[in-house]
Specification:
Blueprint: E1 13-16, E2 19-22, E3 30-34, E4 37-41, H1 43-47, H2 51-59, E5 68-71, H3 85-96, H4 100-109, H5 114-119, H6 122-136, H7 138-147, E6 156-158, E7 163-166, E8 169-172, H8 184-187, H9 192-204, H10 209-223, H11 226-230, H12 247-260, H13 270-283, H14 287-299, H15 306-309, H16 325-348, H17 353-381, H18 389-398, H19 408-420, H20 426-433, H21 443-450, H22 457-484, H23 489-546
Parallel strand pairs: 2-4, 3-5
Antiparallel strand pairs: 1-2, 3-4, 6-7, 7-8
Length: about 550
């Protein structure tokens, strides 16, 4: 850091308790008291540089006492003299502000005398200087570094390119290795109150939102150790912070970080946002902070993974689910509301047709990703005996049917739920199966559903019907293809052979489905006949009682 020598004879003063004594041999004729500190000095060197001291010594002059006593509450300084304390201080500060490292050291030093430095506007000037240098980029850092290096011109020859010749050896300048995050590490050593002001000043200086967010992420990882506990074993950071803050300090820091994050989608990874949300739930942050994080995650839900959204429930009630289903429900609702807003704005905007089609394709792809995520989440939590049917239904219906290209995933989740909740009534089983579009089941899914005893009878009949209809349509298509290719003599034999093989397989499959369907009809008639006999018996008993 830049230094300045105050006085030519610093050894001429010694400190005794709280009193500074002059050892030059001449007796002191003025005593200046500033708080508890006492300075026994000489009058004339002082009044030659300060008009204020000249006035105060004249007001406090006493013929009986050769030592003039002056009381100062602070050191205001004045404009008297060309080299007074204010002028020298300004020269010193201007020298400090020329380099990034000196400015950082000055700002860190202000921590010990924070209130005085704040009152003298030293902190604000340091912050403004740092913000300006950070916005200028690595080139400003390199320029300041090179300008303060004490090097001989004979030893260093600068070329017109970005290289420096050290005694004939070429070396790249620091600008080649520094990126936009060159200032992250230095500002991470600041306390939260100073770091927040530095970030706000840098953001006000026009720094990119992505760069601001990167610094906030690095600061949060360093001073919120609970975040590392919320990460998976694969991406856990093994670096330890300088000191472990209390949970109250971590909660305050997390809330401030969330407040400082720029409101722009995608500048922070979804995985990090969910880790931040998990930590916020553990630290019991304010409801507004938690809602802010849930909305940010909801805006990027299409890039989330199943392991990320399986957030453990913080409740200690035995009726709570293992994972926080309500939290995921809110995140999903935020995503759906934002998607609907984007769709309506796209329809109302006078955009080009091609661009509109491209945006629609991206929106459908995003919605499909979210539907797959929801179905995977349902399949994972469906085995929880504490999961209510209303919670399962709310999550399943939140995603539109067009976003599911196939129904195999939601069918798997429904089957797991039925298996884990065997005490569901017939009405409840019908309700949960209404979430399933049997027409979108694959061949494997239809085969499994047709033999699934946990499904209601109506659903099984629907599965058999649509699979039979699908096979009949395929057979008709093969016959049509075979007739159209009869004229092609060279390929006619191959087509006939392949067509007969496929047709025989499909006929066998149709025969099996018809047999299963007839068996189902027989069971239905048998059940209805038993119900009719029982009703007849009950009616006869009522008749005899009346008689």
């Amino acid at each position: 850091m830049a230094c300045m020598k105050l006085g030519t004879k610093p050894e001429a003063f010694r400190l005794e308790d709280h009193t500074w004594q002059c050892t030059s041999g001449l007796p002191s004729d003025i005593r200046i008291e500033i708080g508890e500190a006492i300075f026994n000095l000489h009058k004339y060197p002082l009044i030659s540089r300060s008009g204020l001291l000249t006035k105060l010594t004249g007001d406090n002059y006493n013929d009986d006492d050769p030592v003039c006593v002056v009381h100062l509450n602070d050191i205001p300084g004045d404009d008297y003299g060309d080299e007074n304390l204010i002028t020298q201080t300004e020269m010193f500060l201007n020298q400090v502000f020329t380099t990034w490292s000196d400015t950082m050291n000055a700002l860190e030093s202000c921590e010990e005398v924070f209130h005085d430095a704040e009152e003298l506007h030293i902190i604000s000037r340091c912050i403004d200087s740092l913000a300006m240098k950070a916005c200028l980029g690595p080139s400003a850092y390199n320029k300041q570094t090179s300008s303060t290096s004490a090097m001989n011109d004979d030893d260093i020859t600068r070329s017109h390119s970005t290289h420096i010749i050290w005694n004939g050896v070429s070396a790249s300048t620091k600008e080649d290795t520094l990126g936009d995050n060159w200032w992250y590490k230095d500002v991470s050593f600041l306390g939260l109150h100073l770091y927040k002001r530095v970030i706000q000043a840098i953001e006000g200086g026009g720094m990119k939102a992505e760069t601001i967010a990167g610094s906030l992420v690095a600061y949060a990882k360093k001073y919120i150790p609970l975040m590392n506990r919320q990460s998976s074993f694969n991406d856990a950071s093994h670096s330890k912070p300088v000191s472990t803050p209390s949970e109250a300090d971590q909660r305050t820091l997390l809330e401030e970080i969330v407040e400082l994050l720029p409101n722009k989608k995608g500048i922070v990874g979804t995985k990090f946002l969910i880790r931040l949300l998990r930590t916020a739930m553990v630290l019991h942050v304010s409801p507004s902070c938690r809602e802010n994080l849930e909305k940010r995650v909801g805006a990027q839900l299409d890039s989330a993974h199943l392991d990320d959204i399986l957030i453990p429930n913080q409740g200690f009630n035995s009726i709570d689910t293992l994972y926080d289903v309500d939290c995921f429900q809110r995140i999903l609702e935020y995503y759906m509301s934002m998607s609907s807003m984007d769709s309506s704005s796209a329809l109302n905007s006078p955009c080009i047709v091609e661009e509109g089609l491209e945006d629609a394709g991206q929106s459908l792809s995003s919605m499909t990703s979210v539907s797959n995520l929801v179905d995977s989440f349902l399949a994972d939590v469906a085995a929880d005996v504490n999961l209510k049917l209303s919670q399962f239904q709310s999550l399943a219906v939140a995603v539109p049917d067009y976003a599911r290209p196939q129904s195999d995933s939601i069918y798997r989740a429904i089957d797991i739920y039925l298996k884990a909740h065997p005490l569901l009534t017939d009405c409840e089983r019908e309700q949960i199966c209404n979430l399933l579009n049997v027409q979108k089941l694959s061949l494997d899914g239809s085969t499994h559903a047709a033999q699934n005893e946990r499904l209601p009878l109506r659903v099984i009949v629907q599965v058999l019907f649509f699979e039979q209809l699908r096979l009949r349509t395929s057979i008709a298509g093969w016959f049509f293809l075979s007739d159209n290719q009869e004229d092609n003599r060279s390929d006619s034999d191959v087509v006939r052979t392949q067509g007969r093989t496929c047709v025989n397989e499909m006929r066998q499959r149709v025969f099996e489905l018809e047999r299963e369907c007839e068996k189902m009809k027989f069971e239905i008639r048998k059940a209805n006949s038993k119900r009719a006999g029982w009703n007849f018996f009950c009616n006869r008993r009522r008749h005899y009682r009346r008689c």
